[in-house]
Amino acid sequence: MDFVLSDEETRPFEPSLVWVGDIDPKVATNVLKSFDKHYSVRDLMHLKRIRRVENEQGETVLCVILAMVSAATESDLAAFISSSNLAVSNLRQVGVSKWPPLTLAQYHAWKDSWPMYWRESAARKDPMSDVDRKFITGLMRELCNEAGQTGHPTSCSAAVAFDPATKRIVARAVDTRTSTGHPLAHAAMNLIAAVAAANQKSADDASAVAVDESSDSGTVSRKRRSADALYMCTGLTVVLTHEPCIMCSMALLHSRVGGVVYGLAAPRTGGMGSVVKVHTERGLNHKFLAWRRCAEERVRQVFGEVRDQDWHY
């Protein structure tokens, strides 16, 4: 089971060309102050400004980032160094990382180009415990077993929603487009509807009969959950046999789902890793975590490969 990271967290090394030069450690402060007044390197704050190297004589010198290549030519820098009477030698171009590393893998892959800062964020770690993985894998296998008993599992997908705190199953659903003829009856959409039905039942069961104190006759009123909030999946984890399409992914996001786990990817329609990653989009007003390849071989065994690339799950 893989944690589905954002595009920024999985992007490869992208170089940004900078001018660097060698200086004596004793004049480092003066050189950096002089260059900072004329050439900005604010876009490279994730990089260390100085790297210690040995020159041809075996002496330790400081190799420093002076300016972006896009900001000055070699002749411009040479003229500036001369007019400012700065002791800078071996002026040359170096490709450094354009982006700050967001994961430890990126840091290790990029740091050799130039020293950089690294601050590990707990938010970028996979928070799923081994116990939760075992429980979710068990749910996925149950979905596969139930689908296999229908006799035609390749024409549908299945989903389940549960409360990760209590492991209580809230709702189950399957894809019913074939049986109902409704083009929007995807498993995820049906699951949200099933959660809404479960929320309504829970609200009805828990409704308290209260006396309306504003009425002299003691009118009895029933507290009901707002219909607008019934579809909310706040905090729930959704497990699907297949990656939800972009429509279903947005519906799950809108319902404020807490997390999503799926088995097989949908290469041309998937909204959580294959085509887009709606759960990591900065412009959207809700973020959640997603995992893929849960019990992938078992899902593939029951449902087969996702051969029809245009089939939306």
Descriptive labels:
six-stranded mixed sheet; 29% helix; alpha+beta; Cytidine Deaminase, domain 2; Alpha-Beta Plaits; 313 residues
Specify the structural class: alpha+beta
CATH architecture of the largest domain: 3-Layer(aba) Sandwich
Rg, rounded, reads: 29 Å
Mean pLDDT: 87
Family: Belongs to the cytidine and deoxycytidylate deaminase family. ADAT3 subfamily.
Protein name: Cytidine deaminase-like protein
Keywords: tRNA processing
Organism: Catenaria anguillulae PL171
Structure in a nutshell:
Keywords: tRNA processing. With 313 residues, the chain is α+β, with helices and mostly antiparallel strands. The protein is built from 9 helices and 12 strands.
How does this structure look, described?
- By secondary structure, this protein is of the alpha+beta class.
- The protein folds into two domains: 101 residues, Alpha-Beta Plaits (2-Layer Sandwich); 149 residues, Cytidine Deaminase, domain 2 (3-Layer(aba) Sandwich), CATH 3.40.140.
- The chain is built from nine helices and twelve strands.
- The strands form three sheets. The protein has a six-stranded mixed beta sheet, sandwiched between helices.
- Strand 6 and strand 7 form a beta hairpin.
- It is elongated and about 80 Å long.
- It starts with a strand and ends in a 10-residue tail after the last helix.
How are the elements arranged and paired?
Elements: E1 2-3, H1 7-10, E2 15-23, H2 28-38, E3 50-54, E4 60-68, H3 74-83, E5 89-97, H4 104-110, H5 130-148, E6 158-163, E7 168-174, H6 177-180, H7 187-206, E8 209-211, E9 220-222, E10 237-242, H8 246-254, E11 259-264, E12 289-292, H9 296-303
